[in-house]
Design a protein that fits this description.
The chain is α/β, with parallel strands linked by helices. The protein has 11 helices and 12 strands. It has helices at residues 36-46, 67-75, 92-102, 116-123, 128-141, 161-171, 197-207, 271-276, 281-293, 299-307, 323-326, and strands at 3-7, 53-57, 82-87, 106-110, 146-152, 174-179, 210-215, 223-227, 233-237, 250-253, 258-260, 269-270. Helix 1 (36-46) runs parallel beside helix 2. The longest helix is centred in the middle third of the chain and has 14 residues, at 128-141. It binds S-adenosylmethionine and iron/sulfur cluster.
């Protein structure tokens, strides 16, 4: 176990077509959502398992009231060097200062297109101008690194790849392209909608010479490439076409306190119930160890095997937890 994703809420102010396209979901009841104290307790218990990085996500983490207070609690944990946040950026303009003052330095902002009309169509509720203003407000605080996450969907935004590269290079931002994945069952994923990491790289390479650097620490999901002219780097997360299950070191904590061992899991292990029934730190640690020892997930490997076989792959055959619950 090396990195931890914490979903702080399943709610979101956007409705991205590839993530949570419906207006209504069966939301986690408020009393079931972990308090900041409970999140901090689990983070502290997980640290000795080898956690080096913690990322807050959701749903949209910035819709969780006073998120900066959780940042301050986590930033104070000794030995946790790498604390980051992934956001859609809509509320960054208001919150960037508080987040920075609470100790946040590393930030990912999801921007899939630089065309305002398309941004609205993709997110259903998003205003690109507001998101860009939030991004630059965060940059002004001194947060660094700031990276853009972009999911590429065929026929939707694949003609904007070079625009995103240009934008990131010009503004000194990192950039991660993510293959469209079949997380959850709401997004009606089909192989044909996915643009492979290879295709994305070819498009980037057609304009900018790049050199591969590989995966950070050998285990990060992103394979990184550096621009030969020294203007930054770009990463590709190709979990569909180049799965990395065998080197995955990521644990996930859902907003309602379940420990999940894979992005494509069907269920999690309920730590919140144990905590609220009075479990001791030792009991919780023993349970976490048992879950992690029993981990046999290799979903993306299996998906690729199915995709390459004559039987094909049926994305809806398995009832996966939705991205907003798990924390993307
Ligand atoms: C689930 S979101 C949560 C944080 C925040 N709301 C945001 O959008 O950045 C985290 C990341 O997952 C990505 N994501 C969501 N659905 C995806 C999918 N089906 N395939 C690949 N990435 C996806 C988003 O683009 C985002 O970068
Ligand atoms: S990708 Fe992020 S912003 Fe978009 S619907 Fe999912 S949680 Fe919300």
């Amino acid at each position: 176990m090396r990195d931890l994703r914490i979903s702080v809420t399943d709610r979101c102010n956007f409705r991205c077509t590839y993530c949570m396209p419906f207006d209504e979901y069966q939301w986690i009841a408020r009393r079931e959502v972990l308090s900041f104290e409970e999140i901090e307790r689990i983070a502290r218990l997980l640290l000795p398992f080898g956690i080096e990085k913690v990322r807050l996500t959701g749903g949209e983490p910035l819709v969780r009231k006073d998120l900066h207070r959780l940042i301050a609690r986590l930033a104070a944990i000794e030995g946790l060097e790498d604390l980051s946040l992934t956001t859609n950026g809509a509320l960054l303009g208001d919150q960037a200062g508080d987040l920075y003052n609470a100790g946040l330095r590393r930030l990912n902002v999801s921007i899939d297109t630089l065309r305002a009309d398309r941004f609205l169509a993709l997110t259903k509720r998003g205003n690109l101008e507001e998101v860009l203003a939030g991004l630059f407000a965060a940059k002004k605080t001194g947060m660094n690194p700031i990276k853009i996450n972009a999911v590429i969907e065929r026929g939707v935004n694949d003609d904007g790849i070079l625009d995103l590269v240009e934008f990131a290079r010009t503004n000194g931002l990192g950039l991660r392209f993510i293959e469209f994945m079949d997380v959850g069952n709401s997004n009606h994923w089909q192989t044909s909608s996915m643009v492979s990491g290879r295709e994305i790289l070819d498009i980037i390479g057609s304009r900018y010479p790049i050199v591969e650097h590989g995966r950070r620490a050998g285990t990060a999901p992103s394979v990184d490439f550096e621009f030969l002219d020294g203007s930054g780097d770009v990463g590709i997360i190709a979990s569909v076409t180049q799965p990395f299950c065998s080197s995955c070191t990521r644990a996930r904590l859902t907003a309602d306190g379940k420990l999940v061992t894979c992005l494509f899991s069907e269920s999690g292990h309920d730590l919140k119930a144990m905590m609220r029934q009075g479990a001791s730190d030792t009991e919780l640690t023993d349970q976490i160890a048992a879950v992690w020892r029993g981990r046999i997930d290799r979903f993306s490997d299996e998906r690729l095997e199915a995709l390459q076989s004559s039987r094909g792959y049926q994305p809806e055959a398995r009832k996966k937890i939705e991205m907003i619950k798990l924390g993307g």
